[in-house]
Amino acid sequence: MNFNFYGLPEFVSYSILLGISFVLIRQKRETRLQYWLAGWLLILLHASLFMLLPQNFPFDLLARGTLTLAGQVFILAAYYQGPAMINRFQLTWRVGLSGTLNLIFAVASTAYAELRPADYQIGPFYVLTALCAASTLWLAAADNGEPRWHPRLSIALIVLVYALQIWFLHADGLAMASQWLMCWTYLAVAYFFLRQTQKLTMGVVFIALSFILWGLVFPVYSLFMLYAPAISAHIESEVWNLPKFLAAASMILVLLEERVVSATHLATHDELTGLPNRRLYGDRFDQALARATRDGSGFGFLVIDLNRFKLVNDTLGHQAGDDVLKAVSDRFRAVLRDTDTLARTGGDEFTAILDSIRSLADAQAVGDALCKSLEAPIMLAGGPYRASASVGASIYPDDGLTQMHLHAVADERMYVGKEQQRIESAHQQGWVIGDPNQV
Hints:
This protein is an alpha+beta fold. It has 2 domains: 264 residues, no CATH class; 151 residues, Reverse transcriptase/Diguanylate cyclase domain (Alpha-Beta Plaits, 2-Layer Sandwich). The protein contains 15 helices and 6 strands. The N and C termini lie far apart (93 Å).
């Protein structure tokens, strides 16, 4: 068997990408990575056809089928780059239906052009295009993405691409219509990838650009074949495959970027609540201290301790305790400003740095608001749970110039507040503190 070694670099790059993706999936099972992996497996199969099969093998159907199917899977993967806009079952079912119909069009048009080149009866392909458009619009109709103009833009683009597909089908026949389908499929991958990605990085830009170029290869190749065959004959196949290679390399870059960002986030944030941990809290305190010293201003400091939290773990289990901590941290975050820092510095202890707070009364008012946010019960698997907290406040520079002093003052005030709460609770129940006759 003669091997086509010109495709070896492409084959190796895809293999490396698949290896990295497989390792990441084993460490962190994410739906999007699984779909990206499935898509690149199809591309690897596509590259294998060109490298392993003899030149005279009629692999057009297999090649077109693997490329079309990979594009549809990539669209599904791009959907999962960000928050889910559609119910997972609905998304998989509707993308599957739309992708299957588009796959049928791509494969059937290629087969029909080869089997009956002199007698085109393309009426059924108009019907198939209409079905493809309807199924894709059905998919877009379930899109609940924000902002709301995103789904509207998707619907407008769907109408445009299928109108152009019908026009190509009418003006140029099956070959160009099929190439246009391949083109917009990979353009759609770039569109949804950019739309769903939360943060624009160099790797994300390169991936989107690579998929755009990948999509444009199909009609450009056909135009060269039709109108500039002499030039096309001198363009090596590796040139047309370059966007695929760039997409694979960019995907590796993005995966590595994500791992670095994830590792950095884990090193500075609490895994359970997502709040800054002691390390990041220390950095934020130093920043607040430097800013206050430079501006001659101050800041508030809070120590928050959940009351009777140990009972939650002992009676309801550690999962319930975790659920309480996550719910409490969400409520605290909703009260504080973006310029403030809320950190989890202990099992049930939180610490807050209040930017531009200069009086103890203002800091205590924020602490009261945090306690008030816990008045509504937290819904656990075992039923509603009412959490409460004790808060101590201190002010820089009035109560101290270092983190240790501010924490000690706030801690002392918190325990004084706890003792007062205990006394008030006991009096409400008819107890007299210190009376030996009370049992």
